Amino acid sequence: MNTWTFVVLYAATVSGISSIYAPQPLLPILADAFGVSEATASLVTTATMLPLGLAPLAYGFFLDAVPAKPLIGASLALLACCTAGLCLAPDFGWFLSIRVVQGLLVPALLTSLMTYLATSASAASLRRVMAAYIAVTVFGGFFGRFFSGLSANALGWKVPFFGLAVVLALCAAACRFLPPDGRAAFSPIRLEYAPQVLRKNGFIATYLVVSLLFFVFSGMLNLLPFRLGKLAGGYSPLRAGAMYAGYLMGIIACLTSHRFSRRLGGPTRTMTVGAVVVIAAAAVFSLPSQAAIFASVFVLCAGMFLAHSVAPGVLNSAESEHKGLVNGLYISFYYSGGALGAYLPGLVFARFGERAAAGLLLCVAMLAAVIAARLDGNAFSGEAKAG
User: Going by C-beta distance under 8 Å and a sequence separation of 6 or more, which residues neighbour residue 217?
Assistant: First the structure.
């Protein structure tokens, strides 16, 4: 793949991921603007992540049978229209409905992007290409939140959505000039392929680890603006957006994960270490201090993306035939955890307080670490150990 291809694919990734998370630092503002409670405003994130937990599996089957390039362009164009529509929503119900539609479009984009990269990269470079792709998604998560908070603070909450819609439209136009997929053959759509993939050694455990870790990740970042409102200094969209600077640590974790994997003895051990780091992040997040919350995001992103950056590469390396389905399942598990994490901790926070919500996040992080540790040493029939 040439430089132009990577630029277009990575720009599409950043803008697509940004469309998921742009509302997150604005949740208190959206709650006031539409006259809803904090827990109800949190549904803005859940509404997009819930379809992300279900739709990618269907797209995975579809992408085993057809090229990925047309789906990339179409999903970007439709996503641009929906993102612009958020600025025109007359009430919270319409806003939420558009977010649900976004949640159906984003997995089409992400699954097709992952499949395009996985089928176009050489076997020798596959894990590095997938780790770099995850690093770009991390930057997208940071950029969407920070740009949203910064621009909303200066110009109002509608501006970030309009700006993002313009970028998505430009990416859709640029996708017309991408080269075709690297695949020479395609597979028919057969439902029995999904159980076959899940039965492969280490696959279901890996999917569960990333799902549980993203539950904690999504829960912490969704609670962040509300926790700021209860601490000295209070909430502002700019302060909330700046709190997500810890995402930059996630980029470093992604770009160095291959080296960590070799030193730690393989991707499965790397996932275990990442889960343990997330446990530490959840513990720090529970402290009643802005400095502790700020630091916890750095720790959280380091652990989360250390695990997340190695998982897709090892799964795609272990399955040579049904890469669309492998990536669809991965995104389905990943965002199913995120959808629950975006809402359930907020509900616990509203009803039982900060300590109960922090305890829930800590328990889920511990469960992820246990599953990752059991995965270590016997997964992928030795494939993971090859690192």
Answer: 278, 300, 304, 338, 341
The Cβ of residue 176 has, within 10 Å, a number of other Cβ atoms equal to 10
Going from the C-alpha of 304 to that of each of 205, 251, 262, 307, 329, the distances in angstroms are 16, 11, 18, 6, 19
Is the four-CA dihedral 181, 183, 185, 188 of positive or negative sign?
Answer: negative
Q: Which parts of 22-68 fold into alpha helices (H)?
A: 27-34, 38-41, 43-65
DSSP label at 104? H
Closest-CA residue to 364 (of 379, 348, 381, 387): 348
**pLDDT at position 318, please?**
67
Higher pLDDT, 272 or 381: 272
Average pLDDT over residues 369-382: 70
User: What b/e sequence results for 321-347 when a residue is b if at least 16 CB atoms lie within 10 Å of its CB, and e otherwise?
Assistant: ebbbbbbbbbbbbbbbbbbbbbbbbbe
State whether residue 358 is helix, strand or coil: helix
Take residue 371 and report the two structure tokens written for it. 């599953």
Query: Can you give the three-state secondary structure of 7-31, one letter per residue?
Result: HHHHHHHHHHHHHHHCCHHHHHHHH
Q: Quick check: 62 pLDDT over 70?
A: no
Name the pLDDT band for 381 (thresholds 50, 70, 90): very low
Radius of gyration of the chain (CA): 20
- What band does 186 get if pLDDT is binned at 50, 70 and 90? very low
Q: Which residues contact 242 (CB under 8 A, 6 or more apart)?
A: 146, 149
pLDDT tier at 55, thresholds 50, 70, 90 = low
8 A C-beta contact, residue 311 and residue 330: yes
- Which segments within the chain are labelled E, that is strand? none
Structural domains in the chain plus CATH codes: 3-177+193-386 (1.20.1250.20)
Tokens encoding 136: 């770009």
Quote the tokens at residue 20: 């998921």
Which amino acid type is present at position 234? G
Helix (H, G, I), strand (E, B) or coil at 342: helix
| Beta-carbon contacts of residue 292 (< 8 Å; ≥ 6 apart) | 284, 285
